[in-house]
């Protein structure tokens, strides 16, 4: 079981990261909420991790906050929710916002998250309503260095990330067109696109 990673950030192509730990490169998938806070390439990063073993693969997921990992693990217990959808949820809303949507039964807000239809939203509310208490609370993030890496092609990286989170090509094109401005990093474009999509 790998519960924490500390190493040098070698690459970030949302939602994937590559972190070097004593010469071993760990491929880690992370939500945008974590990617927004990453240090520059070449700097040290510390992530709380979730290690998943599937029939055909082993995967590692990274988070800055324990509350995010807790929500991720809770979402995986909901029937019909996989890791990809759980990452999309964490990329689109904060833990506190998600807890509020579930507590208030806000189906329309949940269905604006890619990969979540009405039936899945209803299932999330039914299965998690009594379990979201305590997920939020502003748990502090692990220490990390500030700073952002300059993307080689921010629009391409943002487009790829949005596709990974479940948006269809036409939706990606529309969101990117509305969000991208000259000089934006991939993270900035993705942040604005997700905000626009969830309005």
Number of strands: 5
What spatial form do the alpha-carbon principal axes imply? Answer: globular
Topology-level CATH name of the largest domain = DNA polymerase, domain 1
Mean pLDDT: 83
Helix content: 40-55%
Query: What's the number of helices?
Result: 9
- Termini separation comes to 38 Å
Unreliably modeled segments: 137-151
Structural class: alpha+beta
By CATH's scheme, which homologous superfamily of the largest domain applies?
5' to 3' exonuclease, C-terminal subdomain
CATH architecture field of the largest domain: Orthogonal Bundle
Question: For the report, how would you describe the main beta sheet?
Answer: 5 strands, antiparallel
In the CATH scheme, the class of the largest domain would be: Mainly Alpha
Domain module count = 3
Strand content: 15-25%
GO cellular component, one term: cytoplasm
InterPro entries: DNA_helicase_Holl-junc_RuvA_I, Hlx-hairpin-Hlx_DNA-bd_motif, NA-bd_OB-fold, RuvA, RuvA_2-like, RuvA_C, RuvA_C_sf
Subcellular location: Cytoplasm
Pfam family, one: RuvA_C
